[in-house]
């Protein structure tokens, strides 16, 4: 075989077949009032379902220490989740790492794998998402093998979280695809040690429910068994995984005590052109960097922990992004047609809204008896089935400022910026949401 044939075969081997990436579009098709096929209603309902959540301000741990445990055993070769369980898990793991640090920029993350009855360390605990993604890409080329060991993985997680400070959370998220665990000892002893170390465990199962997994989640989450879920399909799997990016609620009084943390807020510096500077975190030559405000050590990225003195170095924007979990943006409500005439375009992006039914019927009637032309005038169009969470007028109103927005701005405001454009543009000052705080923002004493 020539080199060109070898390269061609490698490209074909790395490319997924057409049947492996099918989107199942036939499952979301609906027939509209005019007989046409419609899939937008279900897509919009799916967006709204992800957004509708409890927005009660609660005390949460914004400095998190989480270990992601991935099943890399032979059970992950199953193709019930396309293309395979493991390949989908690697793709979602990359997305989880980026979203985790987007929502928790001053937190720490580590990744552990389970294969051949032992636990392997994929990446060390750290706050740099680039390092974790590079480690995932390296391990994604290795085929799954053997059986998983849940006990060995949990013991490795205990060791990784042993030095986590008391003011931060200690969490473990397990992606489990097997129906067994090849453990060297009694896993109940490990569960007791997790309770002593105040480590919470959440599990996303890819197969049937396993009794020990349910017991593990229930005992480590104060009796809450909802932290163990089984993924039904690819979209549900992604939703369960990304749901963990929200910090958990602080439950015990001992964890609710306030404590002062020392942090540094360095500015970006540029070394002169005729000099060479090295970053202390990677020992590589760099010109740009950040100098530790305590000892002057150079680091290349933020947030980071100073390699010399251990001071936490962040930017003010990192701290601000971490606070939106404590003051969540309230859910926007659906606007009925009776109140839809007040707006003709989205307040944020100025996208035009559909006209009210009275105006739309005027373009399709004969102007005398209001009956449809072309069908004899004696048959009324059947109303389209209403999806749960979808506004009939395609308008969603903020409960504070009252402005109307489209579904895309609704998703963007609640998942990205975590602030209402209408409330932020109000020149009359801060508008409170009735819960002793601004809508999606934090009040600071002057």
From TrEMBL:
Name of the protein described by the UniProt record: General transcription and DNA repair factor IIH
Domain VWFA stretches: 65-249
Sequence ranges of Basic and acidic residues compositional bias: 369-381
Primary role: Component of the general transcription and DNA repair factor IIH (TFIIH) core complex, which is involved in general and transcription-coupled nucleotide excision repair (NER) of damaged DNA and, when complexed to TFIIK, in RNA transcription by RNA polymerase II. In NER, TFIIH acts by opening DNA around the lesion to allow the excision of the damaged oligonucleotide and its replacement by a new DNA fragment. In transcription, TFIIH has an essential role in transcription initiation.
Signal sequence interval, chain numbering: none
Region (Disordered): 357-388
The UniProt record lists the keyword Zinc-finger: yes
UniProt source species: Verticillium longisporum (Verticillium dahliae var. longisporum)
Keywords: DNA damage, DNA repair, Metal-binding, Nucleus, Transcription, Transcription regulation, Zinc, Zinc-finger
Coiled-coil residue spans: none
Domain of life according to the entry: Eukaryota
GO biological process: nucleotide-excision repair; regulation of transcription by RNA polymerase II; transcription initiation at RNA polymerase II promoter
Single GO molecular function: zinc ion binding
Family: Belongs to the GTF2H2 family.
Location relative to the cell: Nucleus
């Amino acid at each position: 075989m020539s080199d060109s044939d070898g390269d061609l075969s490698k490209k074909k081997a790395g490319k997924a077949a057409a049947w492996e990436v099918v989107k199942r579009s036939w499952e979301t098709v609906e027939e509209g009032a005019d007989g046409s096929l419609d899939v937008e209603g279900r897509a919009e309902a799916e967006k709204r379902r992800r957004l509708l959540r409890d927005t009660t301000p609660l005390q949460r741990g914004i400095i998190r220490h989480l270990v992601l445990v991935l099943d890399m055993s032979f059970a992950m070769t199953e193709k019930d989740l396309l293309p395979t369980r493991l390949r989908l898990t690697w793709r979602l793991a990359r997305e989880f790492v980026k979203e985790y640090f987007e929502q928790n920029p001053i937190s720490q993350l580590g990744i552990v794998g389970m294969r051949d009855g032992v636990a392997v360390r994929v990446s060390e605990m750290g706050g740099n998402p680039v390092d974790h993604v590079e480690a995932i890409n390296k391990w994604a080329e290795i085929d799954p093998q053997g059986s998983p060991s849940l006990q060995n993985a949990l013991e490795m997680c205990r060791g990784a979280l042993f030095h986590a400070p008391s003011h931060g959370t200690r969490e473990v998220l397990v992606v489990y695809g097997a129906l067994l665990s090849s453990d060297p000892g009694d896993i109940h002893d490990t569960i007791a040690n997790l309770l002593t170390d105040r480590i919470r465990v959440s599990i996303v199962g890819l197969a049937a429910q396993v009794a020990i997994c349910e017991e593990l989640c229930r005992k480590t989450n104060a009796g809450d068994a909802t932290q163990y879920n089984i993924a039904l399909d690819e979209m549900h799997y992604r939703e369960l995984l990304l749901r963990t990016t929200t910090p958990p609620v602080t439950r015990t009084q001992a964890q609710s005590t306030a404590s002062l943390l020392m942090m540094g807020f360095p500015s970006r510096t540029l070394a002169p052109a005729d000099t060479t500077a090295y970053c202390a975190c990677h020992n590589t030559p760099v010109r740009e960097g950040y100098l530790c405000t305590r000892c002057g050590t150079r680091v290349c990225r933020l947030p980071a922990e100073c390699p010399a003195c251990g001071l936490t170095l962040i930017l003010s924007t990192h701290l601000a992004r971490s606070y939106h979990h404590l003051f969540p943006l309230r859910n926007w409500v659906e606007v009925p047609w009776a109140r839809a005439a007040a707006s003709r375009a989205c307040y944020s992006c100025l996208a035009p809204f559909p006209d009210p039914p009275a105006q739309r019927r005027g373009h399709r009637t004969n102007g005398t008896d209001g009956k449809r032309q072309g069908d004899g005038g004696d048959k009324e169009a059947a109303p389209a089935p209403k999806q749960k969470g979808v506004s009939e007028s395609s308008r969603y109103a903020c409960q504070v400022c009252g402005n109307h927005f489209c579904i895309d701005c609704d998703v963007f405001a609640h998942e990205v910026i975590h602030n209402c454009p209408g409330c932020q543009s109000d020149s009359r000052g801060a508008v409170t949401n009735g819960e002793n705080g601004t809508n999606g923002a934090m009040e600071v004493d002057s």
